[in-house]
Amino acid sequence: MDENKYVYCRKFFLTLISAENLPNVRKFFESKVYAKVSFGGDKKTERRTPVDKHNELNPAWNYTMKYTIAEPGVIHYGIQLVIKLYCKRKLGDRYIGEIHTPIKELFDRAYSQGGSAMLDLPIMQGSASAETGGMLKFSYRFSQPQWKEKPRFLKKLLLHGATFLLRVAGQATLGVDLPLTASLHAGTNIIDADTLNVK
After folding, report:
1. Is residue 1 part of a domain?
2. CA 80 to CA 138: how far, in whole Å?
3. Which structural domain range is residue 17 located in?
4. For the stretch 160-169, what's the b/e string if a residue is b when 16 or more beta carbons lie within 10 angstroms of its beta carbon?
5. Greatest alpha-carbon span in the chain
6. Which band of pLDDT confidence, cut at 50, 70 and 90, is reported for residue 3?
7. CATH number, domain at 165?
């Protein structure tokens, strides 16, 4: 295998199942809730669930998204899975809350359970603020590692790969959780948000 042309990676399947006991962010009308998923808050990795129009503060989606993650993104700390909940409104959607969790911690948990797991996590107001009282339930699965052909734009690939490795090294030596905004978008060797969601 020519490692100059291929990268070692895993498929990551994420299913947003439901949320419960969400705070009511609307004074009038029903709450219609959806979730946005991204890695490190990077817009280019962002995917969203359909809007639940029926269950209000206890939405259920059972919606699966698929990503490809290069092995360094799985085995090193630094990449955060970010899930934000919003209430759909005609005059602008309203933020409800979010969860943040490292991909490495998800992988370590799943690895001990055969590659998949299910979690219930408390929803926070902001990335490091108080809990809302609500909970988010999701399941996920990592595939076995496989080789994937690298993008043709080698310079871009090397730039983002080097950025990622420098930030991981900085975290390991300085103990600082550095953002990985430059290395998370589709087409790099870290995260590839597959075009089609899996229903």
Report:
1. no
2. 15
3. 6-193
4. bbebbeebbe
5. 60
6. low
7. 2.60.40.150
**Residue 199 counted as domain residue:** no
- Domain assignment present for residue 149? The answer is yes
> Among 3-12, 26-35, 89-98, 109-118, which is the least confidently predicted range?
3-12
Q: Is residue 96 part of a domain?
A: yes
In angstroms, rounded to a whole number, what is the distance separating the alpha carbons of residues 9 and 149? 10
Instruction: Indicate yes or no: pTM above 0.90.
Output: no
**Number of domains comprising the chain:** 1
Distances (CA, A) of 151 to 80, 138, 148, 189, 192: 23, 31, 9, 8, 11
CA distance 180 to 148: 21
- pLDDT tops 90 at residue 132: no
What DSSP letter does each residue of 9-51 carry, written as one string? EEEEEEEEEEEES-----SSS---EEEEEEETT-GGG-EEPPP
